[in-house]
């Protein structure tokens, strides 16, 4: 197949950041996605409806002229989050709240410690119809970084899902066969997003021949057996898995230093790379469900009415992009060839 037309997709997990970054990140996503779930881990984090609406306004101001792109806003859960915060967020149009275990990823120092203490908040979310988005890793320093997702399932995720059977839960950016199996064995109120990097790469691509900082993300890349498990579930066409890039930009100097930031800025190539994966797997007919239908259906939102066409045509991801303040960002797959291109 040399061309495929699909319903315009959405990105169900990404990071726009703020300030000068928005002039780069919002247009990069709006070029091919109609909507996106926007992560709230700013500094300071988006912890209430007022901050969510203010952030949404800044994102809308950064849209390209004539774009109808819509950001879908989320709340950042802390141990101070109240049930009233959830009620206010729902009334303000916020669609979900994000659970970061404290210290799990970028800008998560103010996040949750003692997850069970948030059960009253989860109860209110279940009542209000606000989705729970989970970064599923334990953060204890003695736990091997490659095991943190699996242990989180056993210690927390299974218990949350059991305690709140009507709460819609998205297991974000899953990386392991255990996470895929957990979602598959769960009821229809549990789903997962999968990133392009976790479908394309494994930990060899991070570590062999020297550390590659622009492939470093959290949760970290895992063994090839886990990568193959993720490729298998997207190829299956299961409605419990959908597109979430976790596109996460950092300035080049912040990635290429002695303590590089976690995150892959994939907005420049994500949809094309997903298409490449589905082509490699021989299941291009499953791409539209994964990219355009499953997420919208799970969130209870209408599917998009417009279309987008991709053609099998090679192009090269730029080595870097420059922000208005002069800082450079290195996009995911920089300098590499992608087999599919948006027409």
Automatic annotation (TrEMBL):
Organism in which the protein naturally occurs: Paraglaciecola arctica BSs20135
Catalytic residues of the enzyme: 246
Name used for this protein in its record: Dihydroorotase
Pfam families xref list: Amidohydro_1
GO biological process, one term: 'de novo' pyrimidine nucleobase biosynthetic process
Binding-site list for substrate: 15-17, 41, 135, 218, 250, 262
GO molecular function: dihydroorotase activity; zinc ion binding
Subunit description: Homodimer.
Amidohydrolase-related domain residues: 11-309
This protein's UniProt keywords: Hydrolase, Metal-binding, Pyrimidine biosynthesis, Zinc
Catalytic activity from the UniProt record: (S)-dihydroorotate + H2O = N-carbamoyl-L-aspartate + H(+)
CDD domains documented for this protein: DHOase
Record keyword Glycoprotein present: no
Cofactor remark from the record: Binds 2 Zn(2+) ions per subunit.
Pathway where this protein functions: Pyrimidine metabolism; UMP biosynthesis via de novo pathway; (S)-dihydroorotate from bicarbonate: step 3/3
HAMAP family: PyrC_classII
Annotated Zn(2+) 2 binding sites: 98, 135, 173
Binding residues annotated for Zn(2+) 1, in chain numbering: 13, 15, 98, 246
GO cellular component terms given for this protein: cytosol
């Amino acid at each position: 197949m040399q061309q495929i037309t699909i319903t315009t997709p959405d990105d169900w997990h990404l990071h726009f950041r703020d300030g000068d970054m928005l002039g780069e990140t919002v247009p990069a996503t709006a070029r091919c996605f109609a909507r996106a779930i926007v992560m709230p881990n700013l500094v300071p984090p988006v912890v209430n409806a007022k901050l969510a609406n203010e952030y949404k306004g800044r994102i809308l101001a950064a849209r390209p002229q004539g774009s109808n792109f819509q950001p879908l806003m989320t709340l950042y859960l802390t141990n101070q989050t109240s049930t009233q915060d959830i009620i206010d967020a729902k009334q303000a149009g916020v669609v979900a709240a994000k659970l970061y275990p404290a210290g799990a990823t970028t800008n998560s120092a103010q996040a949750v410690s003692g997850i069970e203490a948030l059960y009253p908040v989860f109860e209110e979310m279940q009542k209000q119809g606000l989705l729970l988005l989970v970064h599923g890793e334990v953060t204890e320093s003695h736990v091997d970084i490659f095991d943190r997702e699996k242990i989180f399932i056993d210690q927390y995720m299974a218990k949350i899902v059991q305690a709140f059977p009507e709460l819609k839960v998205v297991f974000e950016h899953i990386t392991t066969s255990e996470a895929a199996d957990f979602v598959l064995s769960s009821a229809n109120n549990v789903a997962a997003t999968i990133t392009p990097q976790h479908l394309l790469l494994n930990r060899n691509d991070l570590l062999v021949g020297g550390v590659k900082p622009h492939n470093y993300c959290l949760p970290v890349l895992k063994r090839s057996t886990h990568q193959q498990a993720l490729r298998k579930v997207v190829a299956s066409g299961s409605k419990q898995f959908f597109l979430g890039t976790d596109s996460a930009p950092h300035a080049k100097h912040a990635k290429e230093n002695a303590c590089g930031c976690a995150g892959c800025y994939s907005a420049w190539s994500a949809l094309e790379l997903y298409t490449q994966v589905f082509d490699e797997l021989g299941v291009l007919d499953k791409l539209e469900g994964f990219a355009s239908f499953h997420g919208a259906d799970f969130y209870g939102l209408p599917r998009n009415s417009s279309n987008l066409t991709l053609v099998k045509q090679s192009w090269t991801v730029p080595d870097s992009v420059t922000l208005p303040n002069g800082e450079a960002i290195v996009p995911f797959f920089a300098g590499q060839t992608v087999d599919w291109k948006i027409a």
